[in-house]
Request: fold
Amino acid sequence: MVFLLTFLNIGFWLLYPQKTTALYQVELVDAIELPLPKSPAVKLTNQFPELTAQAIYALDLNSLTVLYEKNADTPLYPASTTKMMTALVAVDHFDLGQELTVVSEATTAGTRLPLFPGQKMSVGDLLASMMIASANDSAYLLANHYPGGMTAFVQAMNQRALALGLEQTRFSNPAGLDESEQQSSARDLTVITRELLKNDFLRELVATPYLEIPSQMQNMPVYQLRSTNQLFGLIGGIKGVKTGTTELAGEVLITLIERDGHQILITLMNSQDRYADTSQLVQWIFNNYEWRELSLTQYNTAADYAESNQF
Reply:
């Protein structure tokens, strides 16, 4: 039995108890299931599809294996995928049942619920409208009610980005509107998405294609929220996550797909056809990778394992 100490997603390190002077908690692992390229004899297609996205990052969530990347660290405009970080900051501060009152947010530019001056909305419903229907006014309402207002909220977004180790990400507004200081990368957005998926409430929201929430307005009792992600119903196993579109960002799309027990996270930035790009990439991944359970006990050292499995 080989004892392995797993340190983040960097690799595997051997721990020799007889040489250890400190006490460590060690995970005992016999095998791991990894996505590996199919052999040429069984590969269905070797040709990679022509994709329009400027930046791409595809990750197997279970093993954290990178399946494909292109310009993954290039800073680009994130558009409404910004709202993932807005949601993370909001759930850390507000109670979901807390009600916020609309003031100036009713005139917010871009996609809106819409909200009206004097209207009260719960934080949970604001998050739903922001993550499902990509409502900009909901994002600004959350930010304006944060202690210190919009400026402090955006600072909290950037502090969270630093805490996550994001090197290409900075925010200047909570909705993703085009501004010179509003940038991220495909790799960074993937990290943010993984963080968001740890929250059960947010994970459920991004996987919801349709939801009705109360408006607390007599002339319009409910808002009908329809997901901006057109892949729902077109590809089996879609579980979110977020779209984004602006003039400078182009088409942005973060997709979580679950199939045969495997979870694939795909981030596209500045695409000309995000749905076609994602569909082709999903097909290519499942045609060209197979998930195999590898026994780790067959390797004498962790270095032998790493050397034998260069992905």
